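Re: beginner question about structure tokens

> Can someone show what the tokenized structure looks like for a real chain? I only ever see the sequence side.

Sure, here's an example I had lying around. Input first:
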Amino acid sequence: MNHQFNVAEDFLLDDSFLRFCIGVNEHDVAYWEKWISENPDKRPVFDQACRMFAIINGQQGKLDVEVNKFRTLLQQHIDTTAPEAAPNSSIRYMTRWRAAAAILLLAAGSAAWFYYSGKKVATSTRAAIAQNDVLPGGAKASLVLGDGTAVSLDSLNEQDLKEKDGTRIGNDNGKLVYDVSGTSGDKVTFNTLSTPRGGEYQLVLPDGSKVWLNAASSLRFPTRFTGADRTVVLTGEAYFEVAANATQPFQVQLNNGLKVAVLGTAFNVMAYDDEKTVNTTLVSGKVKVNQQNGNNVLLQPSEQAVLTKNNQQLQVSEADIDKAISWKMGTFEFDDDDLATVMRQLSRWYDVNVKFTGPVPDKHYTGSIRKQATLSQALQILKTAGVQFNIEGKQIIVEAK
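And the corresponding structure tokens:
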């Protein structure tokens, strides 16, 4: 490759440079590190291209419309230029890809310099991080059966399980499915599905309700629902799509006494012990959030009930649905979130501890991070908020610049 680039756009229209920025190809990383060392006069424009890529990838600068167009075309470009793509398929997208990149660069240019003026993306730092990286989480969970037996699901492959009452439990590619068609007896058996930090899992309950369990969470539930209601107990975070049954309401019990009661709906509950609030976000249907003191609120779609733990105040506000369920869709979405909030989410997904050297930096972040990124790739975007970091084993050391 012979690159004689003079402006940032030249770099951003080059596939090899994009792979270098994302860090997905060791050959490209090595090539560009060597290239910039041999072309020091190109350092300013090279760094500008790196900064602009960070804006594009992280949706900085509130350029949501153009950024989303760019990201869509970028993914199409990557997909259609993969080795298995049809021979002529890349040509179809090339003009649109380059046009979108050029438009976005014009829009993002001033924002790039506003956010990053004077900040350099050091390739030596990038290489050091790559050698001490942490892979993203995945489908990991354990299941505690009715007799207390604990089963590691991520090492079980696709083997089915069976409870003593005849309930069959299918385990297929990160999802448990309960089949009660062969059950017998009157005794109700309870199971508990738990995800570690760095894990998530899907579950289809005996009534057909679907649950997505986020990292560091657990759900306790019966292997079949009997009685007046369908009650499950949640710690952590989960997204529910509840099978409708007007004669047997569905309830989510939280360990702080809060209850979420529904008939048939889709909603998200975030109730981590280390968060300051408990958030119930309604996507569709209708839910009632009940406190132990008798207070309750009824949510309509696109509303969120927020319980502040220190004063037990329960309030309803308009919800950012995309942000609330982004973890289920494969991304982290932030909107003016403080650094501590960002790091708590990353620590749960990458199963790492976070250490701040001195006071927590007063930094806020707006943007998105792909959950399939490695830890070093995810942390790179935090530099946009003026944060330095190092990965030491399973610990992130964070300090303000």
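Each token stands for a local structural state, so reading them left to right follows the chain. The longest strand covers residues 230-241.
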